[in-house]
Sequence to fold (167 residues):
Amino acid sequence: MTSLKLDVLKTPIGEIDVVTDAEGRLRVLEFHDQPQRLARALRLHHRDQTVETGEASPAVRDGLAAYFAGELAALKAVPWTIGGTAFQRQVWTALVEIPLGEATTYARLAERIGRPSAVRAVGLANGANPIAVVVPCHRVIGTGGALTGYGGGVERKRWLLAHEGVA
Fold:
């Protein structure tokens, strides 16, 4: 049975729960005040693994600290791996390809992955993303620029987008 480490890090928008594996890769990142999201991600993606309190790898800790300090490109250096279905992984990979300083809509994301009629499924996959911030689901907005739901709350989404320079 594989063991994962759970660390809690302070950020300008609240504490985050960071779960890493033995190789130091990020497996889950959720906001600490949303424990149900952490429990769900662990249940869905890591049910055969034990979770122990411990410090995340320096690459994850330092990358996240740099990002929140304004070095936005530091997210690219954070090692991560993700489970999920093939469709979810396709959506999550497309999220990482959204450039810093830009946002997209659910419809454009569906088009980007070649599934233009799957807007609702793209939204569900986006909402099920277990690695917030690093797999930037916050960069997806509603048609017309509406800040639609975000697991960490719309105020955090607004902060993240402003931090990244999204108008």
User: Anything to note?
Assistant: The CA atoms of residues 76 and 134 lie 8 Å apart.
